[in-house]
Structure formats: C-alpha cells, structure tokens
Amino acid sequence: MAYGNVRPPLRRAGLAAGAAMLAMAQAGPATAAPEQVGNVQRAMEELAGTPGVVGVVGGAYLDGRPVGLGSAGSRLLDGQGGRIPANARFRIWSQTKQMVATVVLQLVEEGRLGVDDKLGEVLPEVASRDLVERADEITVRQMLRHTSGIPDWYAGKPKPDGSEGDDPSFDVFDFTTHHRPLDLVGWSRGRPRTGEPGERWSYSNTNYTLLGMVIERSTGHDLATELRRRLFGPLGMTKSYLMVKPPEGVKGPHGHGYYPGADGRPRDVDRFNASYTGAAGGVVSTAHDVSAFNRAFTQGKLLPPELQRVLTDRLPGASRPQSGGRGGCSDDFYITGGSAPGSLALTSYSADGRRQLAMSFTLSVKPSAVALDVNKAVEAVFCPSTSAAASGSSARGEG
Fold first, then answer.
1. For strand 283-285 and strand 241-242, is the pairing parallel, antiparallel, or unpaired?
2. Which of 369, 367, 348, 351 is nearest to 359 (CA)?
3. Rounded to whole angstroms, how far apart are CA atoms 364 and 369?
4. Beta strands in 116-275, from DSSP E residues, in sequence order
5. Alpha-carbon distance 63 to 259, whole Å?
6. What is the pLDDT of residues 190-240, one digit of tens each?
7. Model pTM score
8. Which of its termini does the chain have fewer beta carbons within 10 Å around, N or C?
9. Are the CB atoms for 259 and 342 separated by under 8 Å?
10. Which domains are assigned to the chain?
11. β-bridge partners, 147
12. CA–CA gap between residue 119 and residue 151 (Å, rounded)
C-alpha cells in the first residue's frame, strides 16, 4: 500500500478503509493544466447513481476560490428528506489524522515534543499499565508514520476462516456508551503486533488515538481546542469541529448514512458513536474547509520542510505512490480519504495544492461494497476537455 495522500481501493469499512494517509505523495513537477472547470453538479449526479450511494456533496476549489458546488441523491434513504445542502457539514473520518499529525509536528517545532521521544516517556500511563507492548521503544515518529507495529483497535471482527472481516470490532449501533481513548488503546493490547518498531508500514488507528492523548498531555488543552486554535481558526475553517461526545450528531442539515443490521437491512447510523473516532477520525468539516486545510498543508504553509518530510518521505516497504487521476490529470492529482459505517469522504487534489475536489458520500451499504469512479469525476471537473474527448472516443468506438 502506498504511503501518502494516495487512497488505495476501498477494501473494508472502517476509519482505516482507504486510510487517509498522512501526506502528499512524492510526485514529480505538477503538470501544467488549463484553467477550466467542468460542471461539478453533473459530476455529483453521476456519482450519486453508484449502487449503495444515498447522497453526495462536493465542492471544487482553485487557488482557494470556489469554482463549483454540487449535491445529488437524497438526504435520507429511499429518496426522502430532499437534497443535502451542497455546503453541508460531513464527517471526514481518517482525513482527521493529517490534521492531528500537523498539530503534533507543530509541537515539535515549538520544542514541546521530539519526533524520537518514546511513547513510554510522553504517555507514562500507557507504559505503567502495560497498554502498549514495547512502549519504551516506540517513537512519536513511528506512530505518525504507522510504523510502530501497534495493532489496530478498530480492526474488523475475524471471519470464520480467520481472515480479517469488514465489520468493526465493536457494536456499530451502540451510539451512547462513552469510551475513553485509553479504553480503545486497551482493546488492541491482546492483538498481535504487526512488526518491529520502525520496520514497516501497517495502518493502525491506535497510533492516532495515542497521538491525540500526547497532544493533550503536552499542551494541557483538549484536542478540540488545539485543532481549533492551530488550524481551524487560522485557516478560516469556520464550520469545522472535532466531534467528541456520544451521541452527538453532525450540526446542521446533512446527509444520513446507513449500515446493514443483523437482518441485512440498512439502519441509520447518523449518531455513530463519537468516542470511537477522536484523533483517529472525529473531525466534522465541509468541502470548503477540508480543501483549505489540504491546500495549506500541500503548499507547505503549516510546517517547516524538515518536519513536513516526517510525513511525506517514503516508508520502508511502501509501494510506489499511485496517482488518483487519469488521462490529462494522471500526473497531477492524488486522493486522500477515509470511511466508517455510513459514509466515506474523499479529497482529490493537485500536487501543487492549487486544486481540490472534496466530496462526501452517504451510503446504504458497507463502504467496502461501493465502487466509485472518482477519477472520472476529477477529470470532468478539472480536465473537462480531456474528459469530453475521451467520452467522444468511447462513443465512437475509438481507442
């Protein structure tokens, strides 16, 4: 699996599905592209026709300017509730991790923390309670880069054949029980490690549950406050916030997501338990706000280069980064995202940080069951002439 803001194919539901990898993939110089923008509404309407999609919203941005908004499908299941407002809030799931990583590295820049500090030093209670094996060897850098070897508390329930399932390890429909971050970390303790510290990449939500605790211990403030003070306020992300209290829902009109119950029928999971997410995936945002963060990060405005490289340097065993686009956009666009029961959120962006297409999909099936042609949407919005030409060739049977 590639490390970077390259989203691999959806494989399973969860904060780890399509793991919102932490940073921009290492790409060559961005290709020059015409400053034309296609119809975002039409692109959203095509995506809404994907089986399993209830509703979709999307927004395209060029140099920070909105160049198109779209909404399609419905706010509720079976065409009910009208359309989702195109500027609605939505859960960004694992795209939260890149924000949390940025705050951690800002603390490093301020001298409050070191990337090679040991987990047992920065969170003594984790070591004293033996909640993480080898906590005295694992570093902040390794947690940031998913090379710690710490198992994932979220990982799916095993199937009868022993392979990992696509259902989370907890009751998706328990919307009210509050779980502390330490409780979640404890769930991972009995699972086998995924490698030696620093040895290889292995995605684990536990890394970021722990890093959220590191931020709070280092600053004396809760994570929501630090995100607001360091990112949301300065970047004008006025509609973004960290959801922390179950059964808190998304503020304002928004799309509802669904997940199959024991009988296979979709059940509303709009009140998905916020205590499961936190630093691993708890931010609620909008297309405008998530694009603002993505632009600032990609263009190096939030961290000095040497700290940004902690997130962008290639990892041991990581496969070659893959582009998220095709045709005229193939060398220029990448995709970051995240999913959990009920929805998935994706942001396609150019390597130079000038262009973003941020989208949120609410679902009636497991995220692993949805096959989205996001590349086609990116082309239609940011490379409309290429997209039109390709469609014409296909219609004529050429190519």
1. antiparallel
2. 348
3. 10
4. 241-242, 258-260, 266-268
5. 37
6. 999 999 999 999 999 999 999 999 999 999 999 999 999 999 999 999 999
7. 0.88
8. C
9. yes
10. 40-395 (3.40.710.10)
11. none
12. 15
